[in-house]
């Protein structure tokens, strides 16, 4: 081999070796980041269960309750709650007391549900989660926390109502429908369905 060919071959080998050593491979993302539009689409696909089991009874979804609370001028929440009731109890009570009794039942349920929701929001930290990967994840965590706290807090009210009325019910928060306000809360400007 000629000296220039040898030098060229050595330089090529050195260049390839140096390129291989200096190039860093980028790890692919473990999970595809969720865009806000994609996240909204996922939430919109979630439908509440039409039935739940409680004490060996199948309860049917009979009503969706809306709730809105401003904790202060900056923070608050808008949410939906699912009211389930035993259809056999409903039929029995209609026969015994008539349909008009259900209007007072609805008012009582709405009242204690609203009070429990307000209490839960007032005691929940609405601050941004520093460990969340974004606003979507922070809202998901907060929705799960509020739903869990609501479930625990409303249990006594449900028990009292069932003892007074003999109507088996359950009320659960629907986390997919929660909207949280952290930078301004005005109950008059919330889009509360009629």
UniProtKB/TrEMBL annotation:
<protein>
    <recommendedName>
        <fullName>Lipoprotein</fullName>
    </recommendedName>
</protein>
């Amino acid at each position: 081999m000629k000296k220039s060919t040898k030098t060229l071959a050595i330089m090529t080998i050195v260049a390839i070796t140096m390129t291989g050593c200096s190039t860093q491979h980028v790890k692919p993302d473990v999970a595809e980041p969720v865009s806000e539009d994609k996240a909204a689409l996922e939430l919109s696909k979630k439908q509440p269960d039409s039935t739940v089991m409680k004490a060996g009874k199948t309860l049917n979804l009979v009503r969706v309750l809306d709730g809105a609370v401003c904790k202060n001028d900056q923070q608050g929440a808008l949410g939906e709650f699912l009211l389930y009731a035993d259809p056999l109890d409903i039929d029995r009570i209609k026969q015994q007391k008539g349909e008009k009794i259900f209007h007072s039942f609805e008012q009582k349920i709405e009242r204690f549900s609203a009070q429990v929701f307000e209490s839960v929001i007032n005691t929940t930290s609405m601050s941004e989660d520093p460990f969340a990967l974004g606003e979507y994840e922070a809202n998901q965590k907060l929705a799960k926390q509020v739903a869990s706290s609501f479930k625990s807090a409303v249990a006594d009210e449900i028990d009292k109502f069932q003892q007074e009325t003999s109507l088996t019910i359950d009320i659960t928060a629907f986390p997919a429908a929660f909207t949280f306000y952290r930078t301004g809360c005005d109950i008059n400007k919330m889009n509360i369905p009629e």
